[in-house]
């Protein structure tokens, strides 16, 4: 949107909020394995991804049965940080749990 000031010859360009780019979002995907306990996965989904106990159980079971499931969608750096947190907690507690991410 441009407004001309005819006396001074200057032009003011206004950029409306809708021109701002939304940050790209990335899906954090939890992967199944045969060794991580179901309770640990539910605790990760509650503690790191802010899920309710019911949501966490549903996502955990979907991963267990289908092989993978989405834990949430975040800007790139947040998604990367959450993956590091999951894998650090898993390693500290002796679970092989892994995550991946993909552009949403
Ligand atoms: N498959 C695991 C088991 O039977 C449970 C599990 C669920 C592991 C989800 C990882 O992301 C996962 N104990």
Task: Describe the fold and architecture.
The structure is a single chain. The protein has a three-stranded antiparallel sheet with strand order 4-3-5. A two-stranded antiparallel ribbon has the order 1-2. With 104 residues, the protein is an alpha+beta fold. The protein has a single domain (18-103), classed as Ribosomal Protein L30, Chain: A, CATH 3.30.1390.10. The chain has three helices and five strands. The model has no long low-confidence stretch (mean pLDDT 90). β1 and β2 (10-13) form a beta hairpin. The two termini are 31 Å apart. Bound molecules: L-tyrosinamide. L-tyrosinamide binds next to β3, α1 and α2.
Features of the shown structure:
single chain; 104 residues; alpha+beta; Ribosomal Protein L30, Chain: A; 3-stranded antiparallel sheet; two-stranded antiparallel ribbon; 3 helices; 5 strands; 27% strand; binds L-tyrosinamide
């Amino acid at each position: 949107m441009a407004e001309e000031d005819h006396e001074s010859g200057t032009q003011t360009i206004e950029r409306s909020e809708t021109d701002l780019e939304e940050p790209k979002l990335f899906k954090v995907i939890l992967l199944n394995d045969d060794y991580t306990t179901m309770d640990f996965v539910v605790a990760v989904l509650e503690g790191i991804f802010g899920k309710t106990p019911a949501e966490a159980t549903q996502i955990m079971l979907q991963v267990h049965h289908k092989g993978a499931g989405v834990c949430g969608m975040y800007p790139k750096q947040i998604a990367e940080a959450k993956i590091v947190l999951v894998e650090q907690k898993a390693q500290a507690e002796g679970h092989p749990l892994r995550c991946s991410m993909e552009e949403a």
